[in-house]
Amino acid sequence: RAHIVGWACTTLCLVSYAAAFSQGASLSACADMMPRHLRVQLHSSNSNYITVHTNMSFYFPGDKVPVTVRSTRDYMGFMLQARKVSNNEIAGTFIFLPPGSKLLTCFEDGDTVTHSDKSLKRNLSFVWKAPDQPIGDIKFFISIVQSYFVYWAKIESAVVAQGGQN
Question: What is the pTM of this model?
Answer without folding.
Answer: 0.79
